[in-house]
């Protein structure tokens, strides 16, 4: 039986969802205001704002289920669609994950460790929050931030005015700056029947707030650390009655995990699963939202993903590296923009690192 999945957002995540869905005879309709968005180049796309009610009705017609690939879709649009047909993940999960204070408050409620934080709504509140959180600290807009945008680091309480200006005076959260040992993330999928599968923790490398590289599995992860990450994820998934793929970003500090943020969708730190796991995060998200069983998250080897940011590498040279797979998103190169990635696969961590060294000579991003 052919099924049609509607996806809010038509960026590269949507494109990779579509690519994973076709073998299962899933068909897609995307809605996104940008014409010929990456997913719209492969599938049907309605070019419209998420706030256009008439477009939402046209979008919903004939669909079996709706999901999203972008966490900044208006919750109101998801609630409207949820009156017409099933939407996974649900509006509450979206509402929690799109606001940094909401997601950290959920952590407090569930006993999950986070950096110290305080909500701030004015420069005056920022100054008082600095009295509690101290410096160094980091001010982030509660909503709409990505790739390190909408953030300011405060080295000294005197940075308050400039930090407040640099987040545009938007409602924000002040967090203590964590001198972490490394960044890790966990991708999980939960089905409608409550079945949960986890991928192994991934080690992530960011520069200027943008993800550059993910290594899977993360080296030097004890079973206790993996279990801790899985328990954190399980508590959130169950609390939110979550259906689909959820990603959680952590800081590792002295062998302990601190929750940084979560994304209610497939995630850049899970792209390696396309080649590196028996079932990709994209397929598992689709399986979850369409009521199919979750697939095995077992690894097929050692993987590393490198993002192409702002400029395309010489893909012909890249493809000569054994175990290298290239994904291009059909986007115009622009400074700081993710336009593709490659995943390298190998039979050992050492062999992987040799291949990554070759690839990193070719994948030169723009800063
Ligand atoms: N409290 C913090 N302490 C130290 N570094 C941080 C902190 N918060 C964020 N960062 C750094 O900035 C990056 C981007 O911040 P993040 O909160 O993940 O926002 P987003 O990914 O939505 O832009 C993180 O991956 C991390 O490298
Ligand atoms: Mg992040």
In terms of topology, how is this protein built?
Layout (H helix, E strand, L loop, with lengths): L2 E6 L3 H10 L4 E7 L11 E4 L5 H8 L4 E4 L6 H10 L6 H7 L2 H11 L6 E4 L2 H11 L3 E5 L9 E4 L5 H7 L5 E5 L5 E9 L5 E3 L3 E6 L2 E7 L6 H17 L4 E10 L2 E8 L9 H4 L4 H9 L12 E8 L5 H5 L4 E5 L9 E9 L2 H14 L5
Parallel strand pairs: 1-2, 1-4, 2-3
Antiparallel strand pairs: 5-8, 6-7, 6-8, 9-10, 9-11, 9-13, 11-12, 12-15, 13-14, 15-17, 16-17
Helix pairs in contact: 1-10, 2-3, 3-4
Bound molecules: adenosine-5'-diphosphate (ADP) and magnesium ion.
Task: Explain this structure.
The chain is α+β, with helices and mostly antiparallel strands and 367 residues long. It folds into three domains: 85 residues, Rossmann fold, CATH 3.40.50.20; 61 residues, Dna Ligase, domain 1 (2-Layer Sandwich), CATH 3.30.1490; 181 residues, D-amino Acid Aminotransferase, Chain A, domain 1 (2-Layer Sandwich). It has twelve helices and 17 strands. The strands form three sheets. Strands 9, 10, 11, 12, 13, 14, 15, 16 and 17 form a nine-stranded antiparallel sheet that branches. A four-stranded parallel sheet has the order 3-2-1-4, with helices on both faces. Strand 9 and strand 10 form a beta hairpin. Helix 1 packs across helix 10. The longest helix is centred in the middle third of the chain and has 17 residues. It starts with a strand and ends in a 5-residue tail after the last helix. The model has no long low-confidence stretch (mean pLDDT 96). Adenosine-5'-diphosphate binds next to strand 6 and strand 14.
């Amino acid at each position: 039986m052919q099924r049609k999945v509607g996806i809010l957002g038509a960026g590269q995540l949507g494109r990779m969802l579509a690519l994973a869905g076709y073998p299962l005879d899933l068909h897609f309709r995307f809605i996104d205001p940008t014409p010929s968005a990456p997913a719209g180049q492969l599938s049907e796309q309605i070019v419209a704002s998420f706030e256009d009610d008439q477009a939402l009705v046209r979008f919903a017609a004939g669909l079996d289920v709706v999901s999203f690939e972008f966490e900044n879709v208006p919750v109101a649009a998801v609630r409207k669609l949820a009156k017409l047909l099933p939407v996974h993940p649900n509006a509450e999960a979206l509402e929690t994950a799109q606001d940094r204070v909401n997601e950290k408050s959920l952590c407090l409620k569930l006993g999950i460790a986070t950096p110290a934080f305080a909500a701030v709504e004015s420069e005056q509140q920022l100054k008082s929050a600095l009295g509690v959180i101290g410096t160094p600290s980091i001010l982030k807009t509660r909503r709409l931030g990505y790739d390190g945008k909408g953030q300011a680091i405060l080295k000294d309480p005197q940075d308050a005015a400039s930090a407040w200006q640099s987040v545009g005076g938007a409602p924000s959260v002040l967090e203590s700056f964590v001198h972490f040992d490394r960044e890790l993330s966990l991708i999980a999928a939960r089905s409608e029947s409550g079945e949960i599968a986890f991928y192994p923790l991934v080690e992530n490398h960011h520069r200027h707030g943008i993800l550059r590289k993910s290594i899977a599995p993360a080296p030097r992860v004890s079973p206790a650390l993996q279990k801790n990450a899985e328990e954190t994820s399980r508590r959130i998934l169950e609390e939110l009655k979550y259906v689909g793929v959820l990603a959680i970003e952590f800081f590792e500090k002295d062998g302990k995990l601190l929750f940084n943020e979560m994304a209610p969708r497939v995630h850049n730190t899970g792209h390696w699963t396309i080649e590196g796991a028996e079932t990709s995060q994209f397929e598992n998200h689709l399986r979850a939202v369409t009521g199919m069983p979750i697939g095995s998250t077992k690894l097929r080897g050692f993987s590393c993903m490198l993002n192409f940011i702002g400029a395309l590498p010489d893909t012909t040279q890249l493809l000569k590296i054994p175990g290298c797979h290239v994904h291009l998103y059909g986007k115009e190169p622009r400074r700081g923009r993710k336009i593709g990635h490659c995943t390298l696969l190998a039979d050992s961590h050492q062999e992987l690192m040799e291949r990554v060294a070759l690839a990193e000579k070719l994948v030169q991003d723009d800063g």
